[in-house]
Structure formats: C-alpha cells, structure tokens
Amino acid sequence: MAHRFSIREIARQAGVSDATVDRVIHARAGVRAGTIGQVKQAIVDLEAQSTQLELSGRQFMIDVVVDAPARFHMAARRALEAELPLLRPAAFRARFHMRERWAAGSLVLELDAIIRRGSHGVLLKAPDTPEIAAAVQRLFQAGIPVVTFVTDLPRSPRLAYVGMDNRAAGATAAYLMNSWLVGCHGSVAVTLSSGIFQGEEEREMGFRATMRSLGGRRDVHYLPASDGLDSTAYELMRTALAEYPDLSGVYSPGGGNPGLARAWREAGHMPKVFIGHDLNPENALLLADGTLSVVLHHKLQGDMHSACRALMHFHGALPGGWTPPPTPIDVITPYNMPLGPHR
Hints:
Blueprint: H1 7-14, H2 18-25, H3 33-48, H4 50-53, E1 58-67, H5 70-83, E2 90-99, H6 106-117, E3 122-125, H7 130-141, E4 146-149, E5 160-162, H8 166-180, E6 187-190, H9 198-213, E7 220-222, H10 230-243, E8 247-252, H11 257-267, E9 273-277, H12 281-288, E10 294-297, H13 300-314, E11 330-332
Parallel strand pairs: 1-2, 1-3, 3-4, 4-5, 6-7, 6-8, 8-9, 9-10
Antiparallel strand pairs: 10-11
C-alpha cells in the first residue's frame, strides 16, 4: 500500500490505533474489512488535504458527520476540501463520516465514538431527533463544539448553525410558484426527503405560510417523504399524478428530482413550474434542459468557511465570539448558472 505518510498521521486521520494501521499496511491478519477500508480512505483523505500538513500555526482536527444521499456527500467533501487551504490563521484537517442511510442508532454511536477519539469540532448534518440532540449534549459536555449545517438541531446545545434561512427559502419558492401560476387553476405538490430534517421542515413551513398569505386558493398536496432517492421520488410522483391529474407545479425542498422528472415524462407532460434546491450536477442538467424552472441555491463552501470560523472563535484562534449570518439564497435560472463544477 504505497503512501508517504507516517503511521501516526494515518492513525489519527482514520481514528484507529497505530498498531491497527501497521497491520493494515503490512497486510497482516486480524483486521476487519471495514477497518481496512477506513485506513485506505484515511490515506486518500490525507492526499487530498496534503497542503494542510505543511502549514504552520494552530492545527485543528475536525469530524464531518453527514446523513444524506451520496451526491451530497461528494458536494460536502469537495466544498470543505476547497475551503481548507484558505483558512487562516489555523490549519484544519478533516475526517469524514458520511452515509446515505445510517442504521438505527449508528449515527449516535459514531458521535459517541468521536468523544472517545477526541476532536476539535464536529460539522453535523443529521435528523432533528431527541437521540441525536442528546448525543450533541454529550459532545458539548466533553468540550467538543458542534456546528450544524444545511439543517439545524435547534433544541441541542450546538455551537452554531450555518446555512441558508430555510423558512425564507420556502417563502421564496412560494412567491415564485404563485407568480408563475397566475391564470392557472392547477394544484401544486411538495415533496420532502424526510420529515425529521429540520431544514426541510422549515422550507415546507415557509412555503405553506407564504402560499396562504398570498391569498390564493390553490390546492397544495404534501407528499410522503422520499429519502431524497430518485427511485422513491419517482414512485411517489407517479402515484400523485394519478391521484391529482390537475397538478401544475412541484416544489422539491429535499431532492430526488431526476426521479420526479421521470414520472412526469412518463405521464406525457411536464409541470408548468418545477422548483428545486441546490445546484448539484443532476439539478444543473435538469435546469439546463428546461425541466427545472429554477433552483434555490446557496454556496456550500461558504457554509464550510463559516463553520470553521465559528470553531476558530470557540478555540480562541480568532478573538471574541461570532454568530454566522445566514448564507445568501441564490435564485438560479438557465440563464445565470455559474460555469464549472456544481456544488
């Protein structure tokens, strides 16, 4: 296993012992397949963060824990790794713990394992449940700050939330939907990936309240959660199109948009208005070909900058306290899409 890092560096990155790394590198028996993969991924991460190893100044090791579809994993990793070399006056390294679907209780176990290993901070995207809030409480008591991003845990002692104002994002979607459907009497569908992600709930509440305040009598159908997966979103939308033949608009705060679009195409028509979130590669393609009307987007790298800055203030690397402001909401159309890789 070719590499240029010390056993201690790899062990720290992987969160395992020096002896375990030595066994993996020399292909000795007695190491679980999952741990072998963990060590190999640590070497990959060290290569990606190699410039951080050369920086002087205060060194911070942080953990990034994400519950989200795989497309978001890649976006979050790219955003943080792009931001790391720009952070001053400290040098950050990151360990990533990302899964599309955490088994029951396993995300909590991972957060508790971080307490045992030690960390300068946790960047967390997770469901808003009592069990996870309790785990954040234990991290807080252990002196490990938690910064939530994209979706919040407001009932936990997290240090800060970074991301857009999700209620304002939902209100923006309602304003656009109502404006574009003037003169059309069709109904609207709203799809979430999960009802336990606080950010998506806030978007839905902002959408619902604003549609009501704008005075329209348009029916709004709130579909079951799709887990953000294209296959599930496809089945949900296919059922909705059969049940509500007058559907004219879709607001998708939680993803699975390729699956939603596939159901509409198979029905032989497309929605008059289709609003999504996040300019990831899939949504960029759907926006470019006219399937999506607009994407509400915020720069994930900006979230990562704010999160790391909050941690630097917490640890005294920057003076005083600091509360991250909401990340601006960008309204992206086919005519103002940024060039280059998305998210």
